[in-house]
From TrEMBL, chain A:
The chain crosses the membrane at residues 252-271, 307-327, 339-357, 391-408, 439-459, 471-494, 506-524. This is Urea ABC transporter permease subunit UrtB. Belongs to the binding-protein-dependent transport system permease family. LivHM subfamily. It holds the Pfam family BPD_transp_2. It is found in: Cell inner membrane. It comes from Marinobacter halodurans.
From TrEMBL, chain B:
The keyword DNA repair does not apply. CDD domains: PBP1_FmdD-like. It comes from Marinobacter halodurans. PANTHER family: ALIPHATIC AMIDASE EXPRESSION-REGULATING PROTEIN, PTHR47628. This is Urea ABC transporter substrate-binding protein. Residues 1-28 form the signal peptide. Keywords: Signal. InterPro entries: ABC_urea-bd_UrtA, Peripla_BP_I.
Amino acid sequence: MSIIRSLKQLLIVCLLSLPVLGHAQANDEQAQSLLTQLAESSYGQKGKIAGEIARSGDERARGWLEAFSAGKLARIEPSKGDAEGSGKFVIVLSNRGRNWKVQDALTGDDLGEISRRDLDSIRVNNSLRSEIDGILSVIDLTVNDADKRLAAARGLRGNVDEAMAKKLTELMASEEDADVKATLNEALAIYKVEEQGDLSAVKTLSGSLNSEARAALNSATYSDDPALKQAARDALASIETKLKWNRAAETLYFGLSLGSVLVLAAIGLAITFGVMGVINMAHGELIMLGAYTTWGMQQMLPGQPGLALILSIPAGFLVSALAGVAIERSVIQFLKGRPLETLLATFGISLVLQQLVRTVISPLNRTVVTPDWMSGSIMVNEALSLTLNRLYIIGFALVVFVGLMLIMRKTRLGLEVRAVTQNRAMARSMGIKATKVDIMTFALGSGVAGLAGVALSQITNVGPNLGQNYIIDSFMVVVFGGVGNLWGTLVAGLSLGTINQLLEPWAGAVLAKILVLVFIILFIQKRPRGLFPQKGRAAEG
Amino acid sequence: MKIKKQITAGLSALALTLTVSVSAPVAAADEGPIKVGILHSLSGTMAISESTLKDTMLMLIKEQNENGGLLGRKLEPVVVDPASNWPLFAEKARELLAKDKVDVIFGNWTSVSRKSVLPVVEELNGLLFYPVQYEGEESSENVFYTGAAPNQQAIPAVNYLMNQVGVKRWVLAGTDYVYPRTTNKILEAYLKDHGVADEDIMVNYTPFGHSNWQSIVSDIKTFGSQGKKTAVVSTINGDANVPFYRELANQGIKAEDIPVVAFSVGEQELSGIDTGPLVGHLAAWNYFMSVDTDANYDFIDKWVAYTGKEDAVTNDPMEAHYIGFNMWKEAVKKAGTTDVDAVKDAIIGVSVPNLTGGYATMMPNHHITKPVLIGEIQDNGQFSVVWQTPSTVAGDAWSDYLPGSKDLISDWRKPLHCGNYNVVTKSCGGKSEVAAE
């Protein structure tokens, strides 16, 4: 380790003395020999050679290092390939399938497709990758873009060594951006606490929520110097109190996001089961159809996952709604008032739909791409970041909820639905076409299940089993919230999600699930009609 | 001889059940095709993994038939669908052995399905080739384990992390069932043997198909920020992996910070995810599709041609079936018959080429020798090998790190002929498995 470390130092010293790569004349022979060394040496040596490449002054060096780090630098096998191509270094542009698209690493010429058999990838591993990241981020500290400098400075925390420390101190003096400066200061302080046991640096770190800073302070609590030990402990204690609030906020966020998923999955059921009283075991498969619609959309619009996702919101609704109508017309309408038969028949339908997807599409999970604007997270502070895909889903769940609420309360359809479910005979005698309302209601509930599928495709597997995983939870939420009440579904979903996430850290995921189930059973014993029971005569029916 | 052959041919044309002499029906059975039972789920939750193995077997059988069959007879696949239903596995195995009278069975994926089939195969004296990595602690006279035992996958992977990466803190995360629980028990004992303190090990179990990983990943993040290099050893099964990796990426945990080494994630599982954010996470297997050997490239070409899909992937259990099928074939050739007892004796010591440029040998404990490869995930859903054992490792049926099994050995050769011989008490446990507490 120490050899690698000192090599790294050496390399960084040399690098820092060269602020920008490559004014020098390109030298293909030298490049070829360096790349050959890179290809043929062991993992331990490769870092050193990567450094030499960076220092060679070749302006293509950055491209090579990036390709190497991504595992895309390869050599045409010397013994194989065509006579002129053999031994050539190439940058792989596309590495899917059996033939790879490549480009000459030295000249940049497009070499077309080459069989994978004839290519030797130059291997890279995690520690090399972070070494190269270090090399590249030191270079990035001198660029004009402040955001890039900040990212580079962030990456340096915990990776600073003696030689770098000196250079960083110089860079810090000339740094204008306050954020970058503070981050560099922190990086230096971490180094000082870890390597030198510097007491004043502990103060710099005392408010930091960065995990590297905490690690450094943690190691300082084992030091022999009592003053340093005490200071580190105090600093850690002050960080701990700050962290506690962050953790509470984080748990709440996790709970809400799990809850919103539950709400989405259950709210369609709240309509078909809660309002219409149909026990639809195929509800999960309607969710699955929505997810597969998203996949289908992305297949039809390659390269535009975001647009496809937005378009699949109406498409998923339509597909699931149509499937719902088909189920209602072909099976459920004949089983009106026979809940046990409905349950068994729809369970059968769910198995049929699953196997249909397995046979027609594939038993394997499908890849649904997450668009860029939905991946990653928003950093509130160093210890608290909110994952974006979950944030979108919370928002989406609320929008769907409000939309449904408006339909049920403000539209003629909603009025008719409520009328039919409260007193079918009376509604019919008032001229409402009960059959049509049945179809519309079932279509609405199924369509919302499709919307849930579109959202779920972003956080879980899109496969034939998708629906099964959510059907039990959905029934739980609807029953807990009070059958026939949309508000109940919302409150039940969010609170079950939060309870689950509160329990999970100390009970474990398996026990947390069991505890939630036990809780619901006990609750239903006490209040059989759930959180928000329906009142009046409708409740008796 | 000639006359007898004509007679038997004539008889078999009439009816197979005619019992003129004791030898006649046996000889008659030898004239028909050799039946190969394939016991993999084609529907239900396990279809995702098992249906490709059925296709692999069909491809191997078709190829063998094109090359003239075996012992001059054709091979005939008998495919049944146990539908991911564990008791149904036992029923279907009985159907294959008693009704279809197959000569050998290739099948099963989950340990629980294997445990369900085990008594049937032993009772009816069948042959079962089991192609998936498993928790060990079992050795049956009638089962050949062509997947990895824990010492051929989990232990070398932990060694790699400990010695090459310098990991000091360990998260053992798994799905809540027998394979992860046994494997983690072995790993915990192994880590403690190597001086890892209790507080540096975090064990976590999740239900099947778990999809909400937020708080667990956040816990792992906290656990890993204590100043010591941390790694996650994952025995998380099947579908639950995708949301797990997605959550890791979303919470900004990179492989450079906290690497995850998985024992159940292969090329096929990765084909369902966008692997960009996973680059650098690890898997330990005995085969990767990216292995740079001609045997492997030929196998891939055949597989692509057979499935007709340019993007079809190969994986470790497929290689295990490839090896198992070839071993069985060689053993049948050696024995000159498909008789179960003869094949069972003949197969021990048989060596066939594997796809990674070496040879696999059937050991007396019915496990095989395999190289152990550690690969890092690439952005194209493939693995790049970063480390491998210098030579092949022989599978160990009974773990050396569990108190209940460390004195047991398995040797199905005569005179020992025992699956769980205790070297201390010098006695044979008798049954195919003992409770490993």
